[in-house]
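Batch 3, record 17
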Amino acid sequence: KQEVTQIPAALSVPEGENLVLNCSFTDSAIYNLQWFRQDPGKGLTSLLLIQSSQREQTSGRLNASLDKSSGRSTLYIAASQPGDSATYLCAVGGNTPLVFGKGTRLSVIA
Amino acid sequence: NAGVMQNPRHLVRRRGQEARLRCSPMKGHSHVYWYRQLPEEGLKFMVYLQKENIIDESGMPKERFSAEFPKEGPSILRIQQVVRGDSAAYFCASSPETTGTQETQYFGPGTRLLVL
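Prediction for the assembled complex:
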């Protein structure tokens, strides 16, 4: 049974800092891994999707990496801004629908 | 192209009542997934449907919960005789197809159910 863990559960950083969010999964037989952003009381916005054959994906200030063999993914956010404050969810896709971690709640302080 | 639509956005029910949550997938999408997010928890898969078929309902409670995706109209998640523990955000997602490789799922804004 796939389990997804996100560390840290919460993170507070000053504006401008670069930061890394971590995601680990127990079953390496995955098809893809997605990072989502969730704002309070809102739905999910897909940030990056990494297929199992890929090592990383980049979008603007975001870079996500995937290491299937070690069961890990990282989301790197460069030059953080207060608007980046949200909960970031990692989700793994395999033979079953997405399995989510509990998320990392990020606060970027101006 | 409108995104995934869910209604209502907020729903208040008293214990014992029925809750009906609706999801209209993105245009051209024939696969619908329902997830539940309990307070301070991650999203948990409930059920996966294609038009007129339930493909995987392994995450759905055996009692009081049912889901359908008719040939015409939205997908419906139905909760009978709601209890306080059903209070959660219910998210719907859709994808164009699944051929053994998961396509990106597009999520709706969710329905927040509060049971009094």
